[in-house]
User: Which sequence fits this backbone?
């Protein structure tokens, strides 16, 4: 076996592993999209949600593995050129994303809060047309919180501009059987702490999956 043949087969096996890994990452991304689809509605830029990033990472890894494996096995110069161009592009994207993430790391929390508040105040509807009501109800019931920073975030939103109401999902279990507890304007009836800390932690835990996949 010549040295060239050994290198060719090694490169083929390595990229076959990338191809399988890409399939796995893509599967994880699809699972995240199906399991946590509602949470992406909280953000205006849904394309930048965690599940979308994982799917993109899976597709890129799949393409890398496919081009590298086929190009090395069949000694196709065109596929190998595409492979190396894609490798360089991925490295540049990762470097740029990492640099921007480090530079603007302190602004991420503020941007996330603004996104959540904007969605709550302007896109929340009582008839659940866009699914945002269901998502907020799930969050507030699961994390025992109300609003983004506090329950006051629900006051005078577009859905009830002249009222200081909160959704029924903010109500404490002891009064949850009262249908109008969110309209009582009595803080002893509902959670007062905001949901941002819990949402931030939830998102960061899912982003670790993205980082692990990229590594």
Assistant:
């Amino acid at each position: 076996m010549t040295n060239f043949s050994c290198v060719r087969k090694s490169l083929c096996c390595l990229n076959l592993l990338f191809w399988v890994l890409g399939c796995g990452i893509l599967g994880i991304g699809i699972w995240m999209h199906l399991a946590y689809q509602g949470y992406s509605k909280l953000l205006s830029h849904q394309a930048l949600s965690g599940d979308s990033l994982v799917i993109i990472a899976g597709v890129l890894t799949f393409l890398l593995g496919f081009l590298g494996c086929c190009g090395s096995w069949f000694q196709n110069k065109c596929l190998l050129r595409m492979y190396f161009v894609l490798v360089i592009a991925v490295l540049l994207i990762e470097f740029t994303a990492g640099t921007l993430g480090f530079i603007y790391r302190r602004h991420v929390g503020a941007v996330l809060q603004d996104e959540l508040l904007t969605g709550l105040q302007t896109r929340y509807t009582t008839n659940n047309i866009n699914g945002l009501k269901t998502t907020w109800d799930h969050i507030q019931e699961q994390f025992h919180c109300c609003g983004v920073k506090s329950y006051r975030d629900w006051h005078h939103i577009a859905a009830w501009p002249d009222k200081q109401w909160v959704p029924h999902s903010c109500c404490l279990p002891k009064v949850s059987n009262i249908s109008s507890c969110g309209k009582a304007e009595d803080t002893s009836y509902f959670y007062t702490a905001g949901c941002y800390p819990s949402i931030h932690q939830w998102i960061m835990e899912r982003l670790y999956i993205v980082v692990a996949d990229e590594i």
